[in-house]
């Protein structure tokens, strides 16, 4: 009951914020929520399942493009377009997963990187279907149950997707499946010896998180009512990886903190210091890996453990 | 026909550049098991180092090329010392060095961008741009220079690994780090030299390719992608695999662009498609590891 109240309270706070913001701040807020949602699902894929895939943004792109194309060019109503787009993303993710999850370590990174690149090529060369390099514009979100959805409305939909992602992944993480994922990450041979179906577990984790990325991408498509290829490219995929590492890979809270910190520092530092902020990212990531591979969350745990130890020593 | 023969020369030259980047990956990957995505940045930085020496300081080419290679070798050495060694000595997981090098990739990229901006810089080849004809084959002098230099580098690296005790010690580390250390091989030195060598070879790729177009920061990602694609196609276990993969990749690209009636943008899909196909069907690449014994 308390847990439920906490979720409702959190959702309420997140949902009130968009109504207090100026249009520019609202745009930053929505995009921040988008990144946080992606970071949460990517953390499950990379941090908990140990799959260094670079296709997460590609699946967000597939979701975004699919829902817009199905709506505007196939003429499907919004609800049906969302369902079909999710099914499409799930099917594609399953195909990639069946092939890619057989690959270990950096081979998986290379294969998913190639997939992401191929998607960008297809989007750029898709003619009128994908709008080529300019992307798709001139569409808008139809009224939902008679409500016309404005800027704050899209933020609230994003919050719903974000919280749903978090709730589902927290639930999965605490189940046998989450423990199986962690076991495979730490030692796949030992996990297999314990009777875990490694390939199947990896495939399910990849497909589930990729569909979650697609769902976030769908909402993103209606932020500015435009989608274009560069957003879903390699640069952002690597940025997402850095967010999870800096925050603390394997920790849900860490992924959220990493995404918020890196996204905000990008938004606020870029206008002031220009390229130096990107240089700073690199430095922060290298320092994080060298000093504390568990990221900021790991540092926090370390400090707390030290305090507890000091208190114990003082007591005895 | 003469059109095809000319294409063969330029495709071979491109393949040599890809092969050199693949070799840069391989030199680091074999003894350490680390795939260094910053190899593409090293190639780009090698081209910039050559530009600074030859273009800005007007040092003669015979000095500028080894100079640029040396600069990158030092950078490679320093990279290993700063980022990889502490992780290896702490016994961090095998992904940690790869991630640290991804961070270094961003640092290299942004630092070069800060100094030189996003502009294109010209780099002169040692023999200018005149056309050379060798029997039925014709191409720019730079193409032939690339092919000759690449052949020299690959033969030298191959001889080093196959014919010298030093090279054998690298091979021993690649096969079994622990056993190699027990045999008295200095793991630290082998690892540091691998990074220095990888950066030097990547620098050669960048500075050889520079005169064919221009020197620019954005060249780094294509170098990185073509390099590891060539490496996977050829096979990660043998030096010959790098050049074989590079040539196959370049021919697939150039022949598609020239003879297959698809938009040039779609031809960019050739590399990822080939890479995915090889990863799925033959992840060991074309050349397998030699049998032990």
Brief summary of the model shown:
The complex is a heterodimer of chains A (316) and B (293). Chain A is built from 14 helices and no strands. By secondary structure, chain A is mainly alpha-helical.
Description:
The complex is a heterodimer of chains A (316) and B (293). Chain A has 2 domains: 2-232, no CATH class; 233-316, no CATH class. Chain A is built from 14 helices and no strands. Chain A has helices spanning 2-20, 23-48, 56-72, 78-100, 105-125, 127-130, 151-174, 176-186, 188-193, 198-220, 234-247, 252-273, 276-291, 295-315. In chain A, helix 1 packs antiparallel against helix 7 (151-174) and helix 11 packs across helix 12 (252-273). Chain A is globular, with a radius of gyration of 20 Å. The model of chain A has no long low-confidence stretch (mean pLDDT 89). Chain B has a single domain, classed as ABC transporter involved in vitamin B12 uptake, BtuC, CATH 1.10.3470. Chain B has helices at 2-32, 39-56, 61-90, 95-116, 141-163, 165-175, 177-182, 187-209, 220-234, 239-259, 264-267, 270-281, and strands spanning 131-134, 137-140. The longest helix of chain B has 31 residues, at 2-32. The chains are: A mainly alpha (316), B mainly alpha (293).
List keywords for this structure.
heterodimer; A: 316 residues; mainly alpha; 2 domains; globular; B: 293 residues; ABC transporter involved in vitamin B12 uptake, BtuC; 2 strands
Approximately how much beta-strand content do the residues of chain B carry?
A: under 5%
Radius of gyration from the alpha-carbon trace of chain B, in angstroms:
19 Å
Helix content of chain A: over 70%
Helix percent band of chain B: over 70%
Residue-averaged pLDDT of chain A: 89
* Strand line-up in the sheet with most strands of chain B: 1-2
CATH architecture of chain B: Orthogonal Bundle
The poorly predicted ranges of chain B are none
Low-confidence stretches of chain A: none
What's the N-to-C terminus distance of chain B? 47 Å
How does the overall form of chain B come out from the CA principal axes? globular
Largest sheet of chain B: 2 strands, antiparallel
**What would the average pLDDT of chain B be, to the nearest integer?**
89
